[in-house]
Inverse folding.
């Protein structure tokens, strides 16, 4: 471990015998300031050009037009597809009946169901006998069936 | 007389005042900042990258500073930020040198040394010899160790600030300073410098 005094001696020696720095070119300061000016001017020009490009150039106009047209096209395409989807979906939906018809249908279903539950003879029995449908109607003109 | 009073006024201006003026587009204030810091920047660049391209690197530093000023959040930390940019530029240049495989040859270029010696022909030979030794002592360090030694010991930046500049924990900076000093001391002693 070096003691601080020997460190200080070393530092002093280095400082005392450091190489002389070559002098700057006499016009270096002017060169730097000129470079700064050029840099600033080119920055300003670039900004100005950028502004002009955005505001006046026909290409940018076209680009703006194209972009606005494409925006419209995209939004209208989305709207049309939504409309198509909605209209295509409609037929699959059950028809909505008017309220009056719904009420009638409901009343009919209730009475019908009650009839089944209570099994009233008036409504279940008809004038015809239950096996009536088995008999063939026989008319005078028709021939009786033969087994020949 | 006017120039003197102007200089006094500039000296009174803090870095953050000058930065604020620069942000308003005042390039004269940037000139003052340049004048205030150019020697430190050049010195750091010189120690880290050698004499070649020194002016170009200094120009790059100050251009980056100008471009980056709007992003500087803490204007009172301008000098730390400036050193950070300087170190970044040096580091980039170091990588470029490494790509060209010519950094060492450029640093050891005898022609460069001759030029320095010719320029300083009034200095005594011992001073030149020691300068050469210090330069070589720094060159034999890794870029990381050289950076902390240059910033802390030669540029007098506190270790805490060096840590901020290099984006390192303070402990790492401390240990690197310790290692770098030892390495340079050993090199100098091996070269016959007995006074350390």
């Amino acid at each position: 471990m070096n003691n601080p005094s020997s460190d200080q001696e070393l530092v002093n020696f280095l400082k005392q015998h450091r190489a002389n720095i070559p002098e700057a070119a006499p016009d270096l300061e002017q060169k730097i300031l000129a470079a700064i000016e050029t840099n600033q001017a080119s920055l300003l020009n670039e900004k100005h050009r950028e502004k002009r490009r955005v505001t006046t150039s026909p290409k940018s106009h076209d680009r703006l037009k194209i972009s606005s047209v494409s925006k419209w096209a995209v939004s209208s395409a989305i709207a049309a597809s939504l409309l198509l989807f909605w209209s295509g979906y409609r037929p699959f939906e059950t028809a909505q009946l008017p309220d009056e018809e719904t009420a009638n249908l409901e009343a009919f279903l209730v009475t019908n169901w009650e009839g089944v539950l209570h099994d009233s003879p008036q409504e279940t029995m008809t004038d015809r006998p239950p096996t009536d449908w088995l008999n063939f109607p026989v008319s005078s003109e028709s021939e009786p069936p033969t087994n020949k | 007389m006017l120039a003197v009073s102007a200089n006094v006024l500039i000296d009174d201006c803090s870095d953050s005042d000058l930065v604020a003026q620069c942000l308003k587009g005042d390039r004269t204030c940037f000139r003052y900042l340049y004048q205030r810091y150019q020697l430190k920047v050049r010195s750091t660049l010189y120690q880290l990258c050698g004499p070649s391209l020194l002016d170009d690197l200094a120009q790059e530093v100050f251009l980056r500073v100008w471009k980056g000023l709007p992003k500087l959040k803490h204007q009172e930390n301008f000098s730390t930020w400036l050193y950070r940019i300087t170190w970044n530029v040096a580091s980039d240049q170091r990588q470029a040198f490494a790509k060209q495989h010519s950094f060492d040859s450029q640093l050891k270029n005898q022609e460069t040394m001759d030029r320095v010696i010719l320029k300083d022909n009034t200095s005594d030979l011992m001073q030149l010899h020691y300068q050469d030794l210090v330069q070589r002592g720094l060159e034999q360090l890794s870029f990381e160790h050289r950076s902390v030694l240059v910033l802390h010991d030669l540029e007098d930046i506190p270790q805490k600030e060096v840590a901020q500049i290099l984006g390192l924990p303070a402990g790492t900076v401390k240990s690197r300073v310790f290692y770098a000093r030892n390495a340079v001391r050993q090199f100098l002693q091996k070269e016959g410098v007995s006074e350390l």
